[in-house]
Amino acid sequence: MGKCFVCGKHGLFLKVDDQRRCKECAEDAEKEEVAIFETYYANLLHYLRDLQILVEVGDDPIRALEYIPKFENKIEECETLRAEIHNPKHEERLMKKLINSITYQDDFSKRYGIGKLEELEISVIADSVTKKFSTEKIFLDL
After folding, report:
1. How far apart are CA 142 and CA 97, in angstroms?
2. Among candidates 105, 104, 91, 70, which has minimal Cα distance to 142?
3. Which of 46, 57, 74, 81 is spaced 20 to 30 A from 39 at the CA atom?
4. What is the rounded distance in angstroms from the CA atom of residue 38 to the CA atom of residue 119?
C-alpha cells in the first residue's frame, strides 16, 4: 500500500516516487523548483549585465580616484556572481539550460564547439578533444 508523505493520500495502487510523493505532489514540487530556478537565473542575468556596464575613466589620474568605489563594487558583484554560479542546488539545472541555449554561427562552429550564449553575450568553446562543453569551462567563460 502506497502513502504520500506530502498530502497523506494512500491506497493499494497509489504509486509514489523515491521521495514518497504521489504524482500530483511531485508535479507541484517540480513546478515550484522551476519557478525558484527561473528567479535564480534572472538574478544571474542581472549580475552579468551589471558587470558588463563599463566604468569609463578619463585621463586625469587625480579624478580617477573617485572611480575606486565603482571598481570595488564591480569586484563584489564578481564574487557574488561566482558564488551564485556554483550554487550546488542549481548548478546542474543551470548547466543544462546554458548548454541548450548555445547558438552556432554555422556548421563549422557547431562541429568544433564554438558557440555563443546570446542571452548572456558570451562566447563559449567546447573541449578540443571531446567536443563537449564541460561545467568548469562554461562557468569559467561566465
Report:
1. 14
2. 91
3. 74
4. 14
Pairing relation of β-strands 102-103 and 10-11? Answer: unpaired
Backbone CA torsion sign across 74, 126, 118, 38: negative
* Residue entry with cell 565603482: 70
State the pTM of this model: 0.69
Q: Among candidates 23, 81, 86, which has minimal Cα distance to 51?
A: 81
Those residues of the chain that have pLDDT short of 50 are none
